[in-house]
Write a structure and sequence with these properties.
Blueprint (H helix, E strand, L loop, with lengths): L3 H7 L5 H7 L5 E3 L5 E3 L12 E7 L9 H14 L4 E5 L4 H5 L7 E2 L2 E4 L1 H5 L5 H21 L6 E6 L3 E3 L9 E3 L10 E3 L1 E3 L4 H7 L4 H10 L1 E5 L4 E3 L6 H8 L6 E5 L4 E4 L14 H10 L2 E5 L4 H16 L5 E6 L1 H7 L12 H19 L5 E6 L6 H12 L5 E4 L1 H4 L5 H11 L15 H11 L5 E4 L1 H12 L7 E4 L19 E10 L4 E6 L18 E2 L5 E2 L3
Parallel strand pairs: 3-16, 3-17, 4-15, 4-16, 8-11, 17-18, 18-19, 20-22, 21-23
Antiparallel strand pairs: 1-2, 2-14, 5-6, 6-14, 7-12, 9-10, 12-13, 14-15, 22-23, 24-25
Helix pairs in contact: 3-16, 6-9, 8-9, 12-13, 13-14
Length: 551
């Protein structure tokens, strides 16, 4: 089979103006022939009958489970059965593109295009976010240097600089070394752009004015009396809004079958809230009958945060949830060696099925409309497929084979039909916890109900931060837990937990502008590092100007 990039180049794309006009979009700005920004004026909340479909997955493995690929394929399949559908995705970060994961534009015959642009600079949204974060940092340090009118305690600065690359040496740095005119010497650090509160605010804003209000509330530091100092207090709000005014417009592209797709925002789900923007989702709902969206990594992270944070803050409710699973990933979760994964083994599959079973049970706590998409690979055998269907359907959920990587939308026709039938029923959507629950109790609820932990251990630092946050009046905020994506536990090596375990909360951060509290487990890093052999080693451009090695 051809490579992703070969398939992408051979696809005949339509002019983005044609895609926009077919959707009824009147106000858009073209970025070349195949990308466009949709005006915020196109967002219309009056369309109430559109269906919101969430695509999530089991815990990821080194093989890749194909969640984005299934999302795209499902949107194309819905259009094939004469339903108006649109795919809503996150923008890829340059960190994993050049790191270990690669791009995030789907794969095979189920991609969003132009894939090179989407995976690289795209329309510049992430650069705008990065610049905005660093502008606030610069104005904060300048405020201190120019007399520190707000009496900021430099030991209580919580705002970090950022970069949209994996660069471990920037996690902890010292700034303003050298001359006195360089500023006040202090410890600082960098987050990856997708882990910043600015990204979260960007994705959780409903419009430009809502964005302005959220930006103004972001806390940058505390003064010597422990009072919060905000972006507004240092006079940075207006400049940030100006830098972000175009980025807030959702990006319109197309799939390999010319189905429309909106790609906007991209917080990681392991260290952030993992969902594309509210603006993108609501724009999609105003344009199509079916909106197929996704949340990052496994359902324990992305889907939980989609339901408990995004839906809570946006007033959204999914009509159906699709859980993507692969047979080889389930065998991996049972402890099967990677070199043996392609060999038929029903015992390993049955043991690894516990991972999928847990996610199914968890998603039933939010709504009853569930379906499992088995993302088929050539090594899957008939016996393995039959066993997986049997085990899933014993839980009262259908498991449907999908072959979108090789067959495009045609490979998800059965899945699309099931989604349509499920969306005809009331999903009985509910969230995991009420606003009134305390921060510790919210964390304990997620740990118990979603991660299946026996309890939570809070560090002294985390407990003190929770006490401080609740005194400031933010106890009603939902919780975003930063945790490894590879396991239900906070140990990335514990793929198939069989013994009792606890979740360890090492630190707490308040995202006052975004509207949630971040609980950091174990040694999770908000600035990743590159692996020994990063994907960057294989990326280049040939003599004809074609990018090679990007996936």
């Amino acid at each position: 089979m051809k490579t992703d990039i070969e398939i992408a180049r051979e696809t005949k794309m339509k002019d983005i103006g044609e895609i926009a006009e077919n959707l009824g979009i009147k106000n858009y700005e073209k970025y070349g022939n195949y990308k466009a920004k949709i005006s915020l004026d196109e967002l219309d909340d009056s369309k109430k009958d559109s269906k919101l479909v969430l695509v999530t997955s089991i815990n990821p493995t080194p093989f890749g489970e194909g969640k984005t690929t299934v999302n795209i394929g499902l949107s194309m399949a819905l259009n094939k059965i004469n339903q108006s559908a649109i795919s809503i995705l996150r923008e890829p970060s340059l960190g994993p593109c050049f790191g270990i994961k690669g791009g995030a534009a789907g794969g095979g015959y189920s991609q969003v295009l132009p894939m090179e642009d989407i995976n690289l600079h795209f329309t510049g949204d992430f650069h705008a976010i990065t610049t905005s974060v660093n502008l606030v940092a610069a104005m904060l340090d300048n405020h201190i240097y120019q007399g520190n009118e707000k009496n900021i305690d430099t030991n209580k600065i919580v705002w970090k600089r950022c970069l949209d690359l994996n660069d471990r040496v920037l996690r902890d740095v010292v700034v303003a070394l050298g001359k006195k005119t360089n500023g006040v010497v202090r410890e600082d650090g960098f987050d990856i752009t997708v882990a910043t509160e600015m990204m979260a605010v960007f994705c959780l804003s409903n419009n430009l004015e809502d964005f302005r209000e959220k930006v103004s509330k972001m806390i940058v530091a505390y003064d010597f009396e422990d009072n919060p100092v905000t972006v507004d207090d240092i006079g940075a709000t207006g400049s940030v809004v100006v830098l972000m005014k175009d980025a807030l417009k959702a990006n319109l592209v197309q799939t390999t079958e010319n189905t429309p797709a909106i790609i906007h925002g991209g917080p990681f789900a392991n260290i952030a809230h993992g969902c594309n923007s509210i603006i993108a989702t609501k724009t999609g709902l105003s344009l199509a009958d079916y909106v197929v969206t996704e949340a990052g990594f496994g359902a324990d992270l992305g889907a939980e945060k989609f339901n408990d944070i995004k839906c809570r803050l946006a007033g959204l409710e999914p009509d159906c949830t699709v859980i993507v699973a692969t047979i080889r990933a389930l065998k991996y979760h049972s402890g099967m060696k990677m070199d043996d994964i392609e060999n038929e083994n029903l015992d390993y599959l049955k043991t690894g099925f516990v991972n999928l079973q847990t996610h199914i049970e968890n998603m039933k706590k939010y709504g009853k409309n569930l379906v499992v998409a088995i993302n088929i690979f050539p090594s899957d055998t008939e016996k393995e497929i039959a066993l997986l269907k049997e085990l899933t359907e014993e839980l009262g959920v259908r498991a449907i084979e999908t072959r979108v990587f090789s067959d495009g939308g045609e490979g998800a026709i059965d899945l699309a039909k099931e989604v349509v039938e499920l969306c005809k029923k009331d999903n009985d959507f509910s969230m995991l916890y009420p606003d009134e629950l305390g921060i510790k109790e919210k964390i304990e609820t997620i740990a118990r109900e979603i991660y299946r932990a026996s309890g939570v251990e809070f560090s002294n630092k985390a407990s003190k931060e929770i006490e401080k946050i609740e005194k400031l009046g933010y106890s009603s905020y939902p919780v975003c837990i930063a945790k490894t994506q590879y396991s239900l536990t906070d140990d990335p090596k514990n793929l198939n937990p069989t013994e009792s375990y606890k979740i360890n909360i090492s630190d707490i951060r308040l995202n006052a502008g975004a509207g949630f509290v971040v609980a950091i487990t174990g040694n999770i890093m908000t600035m990743p590092g590159l692996p020994k052999k990063p994907a960057a080693f294989g990326i280049d451009i040939d003599k004809e100007g074609n990018i090679v090695g990007l996936s």
